[in-house]
Records
---
Amino acid sequence: MKLLVTGGAGFIGSHVVRRFINAYPEYSIWNLDALTYAGNLENLSDIEHQPNYQFIKGDITDKEFISSLFEKEQFDGVIHLAAESHVDRSISGPDAFIQTNVVGTANLLNAAVQCWKGNFDGKRFYHVSTDEVFGSLGPEGKFNESTAYDPRSPYSASKASSDHLVRAYHHTYGLPIVISNCSNNYGSHHFPEKLIPLIINNIKNSRPLPVYGKGENIRDWLWVEDHARAIDLIYHQGNNGETYCIGGNNEWKNIDVVRLLCKLMDEKLGRAAGESEKLISYVTDRPGHDARYAIDATKLKTALGWEPTQPFEQLLAQTIDWYLANEEWLEHVTSGNYRSYYEKQYTR
Ligand code: NAD
Ligand code: DAU
């Protein structure tokens, strides 16, 4: 099995690559990543010398490159995670999202169809998507596989477009596909532009903790290794052409996540109880901020026996420990471009 993972140097991709490298030594795992600001080979330093691992630096928006890579390497399968992934960046600059998430996905689909030439035996194209394609929930109900699409940010609209393309290539060309739509992940190697690692980093440095609006928006948090385990199961056992929703069954208001992080970090850093909460700073809300996400993952449980790991507080504490033990990683990813992004986003 020669498997191409795109975006393997990013947050979730690095967990997927690590899982596959360790679980399937007989597979050859190829990690294709453009190493944007979000991609970091340090995320894979523990497995980079494994004999079944190969890294290729390349951009999925480069049609010729992608097409010749497929012709040359004749992959058996693709797990496609490469994307521009941050909603706030999609608001300030949507073009990169349309290029990578829509055009890049189309390039991969075209290359797979051309390379496999209708002989799809043993082939599979797995597209990793998000629950944000379903839009925003009120206080009741959850997203599931039959929820209508209603994306509301340039990021989610670009992911929705790519989902539609993947399904269209299945129906039109017979491409064997699976898609999953997952809720918010947390865990190690998460880039500190996203809520949880940003708050951990700011508490550590006693900087203001920016909470958008009133902090009442709700997200359904899933441990990233649970997501990687679900991807493994779906890649190997999911039904051709089907979609699977993946979620943590773990809904939290943003302000409560921030308060929990403050409490856990006060304990770990030996600060007085309540010390870090004083850093909370309510800032201008995200435009079009989706109110609530929640996933009903019954299909995945019934079909493939997958369930999320709990409890949240314990895994969040483990996540904090990882950030405190990996200062060098944090320093590397928060130098340079990150600083100018941060100034622009939070000094308004
Ligand atoms: P990330 O931003 O941490 O990583 C994205 C990776 O893709 C990076 O390594 C980056 O270098 C690479 N990349 C970006 N543009 C590229 C291009 N043009 N060509 C090649 N590589 C490129 O993202 P993540 O949070 O790990 O998300 C991975 C995937 O999972 C995305 O498709 C995202 O939509 C989806 N997803 C994320 C979450 C979440 O909570 N983070 C939840 C559900 C789904
Ligand atoms: O639901 C899955 C999605 O989760 C993925 O598809 C995206 O790639 C991923 O980035 C994530 O999107 P969110 O927008 O939900 O994640 P983020 O960490 O940016 O924000 C989580 C919540 O916290 C959201 O309601 C906005 C809020 N927030 C975020 C930041 C960065 C703040 O209040 N302050 C902040 O500084």
Note: The pocket of nicotinamide-adenine-dinucleotide (ligand 1) is lined by residues 6-7, 9-13, 33-36, 38-39, 59-61, 81-85, 100, 104, 128, 130, 159, 182, 184-185, 191 (CB under 6 Å).
---
Amino acid sequence: MEPTIHRGLAGVYFDTSHICHIDGERGELIYRGYDISELTDASYEEVVHLLWRGELPTRDELSAFRQELAPLFALPDGVIEALRNLPKDTDPMHALRSAVSLLAAYDEDPDGVDDTNVRRIGASLLVRFPALVATFERLRRDLPPVTPDPELTIAGNFLYMLSGEAPSEAATRVMDVALVLHAEHGSNASTFVARSTASSLTDTYSAITAAVGSLKGPLHGGANAAVMKALEAIGSVEAVEQYVLDTLADPKGRVMGFGHRVYRVLDPRAAILRGVSERLAEESGDSTWFEMSLEMERVMDREMEKKGRQIKANVDFFSASVYRMLGFPSDQYTPIFAVARISGWMAHLYEQYADNSLTRPRIHYLGETGKRFVPIDERG
Ligand code: CMC
């Protein structure tokens, strides 16, 4: 009997989870019971506490969590040296993926997959991700790495380690919102890769290295950088419409930042980021990127409605203009996504290691059978 093929595992449930729920028809995203719109005033650390421990922290719990994290930001010297030795034009996602893998060599127990050890590694990766991204950014600009400030939050420290200057409260708040919105999203490609890799009971670093590699792709986290590349190439609000029409006229054309495997309506994260982008545009007095994004969304919505298709803006669409207005270079957009998603990946690894089942689906063979071996000299 022919098996049923679920290409891309679309619609397949491979396990159960208590972390996150997505209702693609209603456009709902829920972290452990809380609709995402409830969490936009929370700090990233509060949301990580929620994802990892199941509850929002009390003030004392939050301060204990921050104290636990503060000493973990510092990177091993060997990893900083490795980043320093990379060619300056290395894509920051290649740098991040390589550095995460290398961290295992400096860990006293990289391989233990008991809950205590995995959570110890998770806490260090949570704060080392921003440190790695910021350190490589400084090194490639021939600037010395900045020692993290134990008094700052993850969002604040990330901005501080990038610029070397005390971050403004407003920029830290925007970064917190971006980190919260990108923290977790169920069984997306990179999280599935993390869980699947861990399911052989290999180590946390291997699972997270694989996840970073998956996130990098333009159909996943790489889309935010692709959105900005498109906006830069388009250059003006007036030129947006023709760009969208030309892209859609190509049967393989994709307007980046639109479409989703699960959402059939607007991604709720895109709606929140649209508001952030609008506010930043007003505050900065430069609304170019926001206006272009708005026009692209208008034309896409109109064209998709004509075709009767449910392809709406996703999280990567408005994050591009937000990061641009915060001053990030476009090849840092996907690393910022990784700085947020490490929390979701780790939440899933805690579940996976706690109750593991090896991921081992089947693939339907369509090749030949029954061929006989012919020695090489007789093959002609
Ligand atoms: N622009 C134009 N057409 C699109 C788009 C788009 N952005 N997205 C989907 N389609 C069309 C696609 O061409 C196909 O058409 P047809 O049926 O005529 O061949 C149809 O919609 C279904 O597309 P699919 O790729 O088979 O569907 P999927 O569920 O695998 O798509 C997706 C999900 C995210 C890969 C896709 O929408 C896409 O490529 N979007 C652009 C990249 C992007 O923004 N990725 C970020 C995803 S959300 C957050 C994250 O993971 O980082």
Note: The domain at 20-219+331-354 is CATH 1.10.580.10 (Citrate Synthase; domain 1).
